[in-house]
Sequence to fold (97 residues):
Amino acid sequence: MVSSIPMNMGYNNNPYIIMPLNKTSENGLTVESSTPTNQFSEEFMNNLDDIKAADADGNNIISLNELKNFEAKTEFAQTVLELMEKYAQDFRYRKFV
Fold:
């Protein structure tokens, strides 16, 4: 299964994804990049809003444990959860092979 969401592995076999930052912060500061930022579609960015509520500690990083505890699972959130569980399983397998 291939995903365009970059996942990383944390401690205790707990994968996580880092959410993209907003272009404008709450206090009005604007972020600009010298690299192309159209990597993700508008639809994809809107779907990310569905799982931002799962970020329990507000650090802009969503771990597998946070997503498992997230009650309002949309179809997108469920798909990301399944991808993260598969990633954790594959990572564990690669570690011992």
